[in-house]
């Protein structure tokens, strides 16, 4: 297999294992389903179902602290994505776009989460400049 495609498959599998707890999971699952399902609605639904099962497996393994199982799930997706990219090398460009979108979404969400300030029972004498979400309580 082309080393670049192998690296892409590996990166995508790692992204899947790290994404299952994020807000972006649903979109990632749908886009990967369409891509791996090669545009066929039935195949896309089957891939999405496999990804839902994967999410359950990851949650169970994570709750049990089963690092071996987490690694096995990641390896299974790495193998599946390698096979897919071997059969459909032109799909690499779309897979890169999906991963880039996920990374951009995560970067935005992380930055947005840092821009949060809550003020409780305070009095300000003079101007106050805040950036981000402002919640004044009390």
Structure description:
The chain is mostly helical and 138 residues long. It has five helices and two strands. A two-stranded parallel ribbon has the order 1-2. Helix 3 packs antiparallel against helix 4 (67-87). The longest helix is centred in the middle third of the chain and has 24 residues, at 41-64.
Main sheet specs: 2 strands, parallel
Give the ordered list of helices and strands: HHHHHEE
Find the count of extended strands (DSSP E, 2+ residues): 2
Q: What fraction of residues sit in β-strands?
A: 5-15%
Average residue-wise pLDDT: 83
Categorize the overall geometry.
globular
Number of helices: 5
Helix content range of the residues, please?
over 70%
What value does the Rg take, in angstroms? 20 Å
Structural class: mainly alpha
Poorly predicted parts: none
Which strand order spans the largest sheet, edge to edge or round the barrel?
1-2
Q: Separation of termini?
A: 62 Å
SSE order and pairing:
Layout: H1 3-19, H2 25-36, H3 41-64, H4 67-87, H5 92-114, E1 116-120, E2 133-137
Helix pairs in contact: 1-4, 1-5, 2-3, 2-5, 3-4
List keywords for this structure.
138 residues; mainly alpha; 5 helices; 2 strands; 7% strand; globular
Short précis:
The protein is built from five helices and two strands.
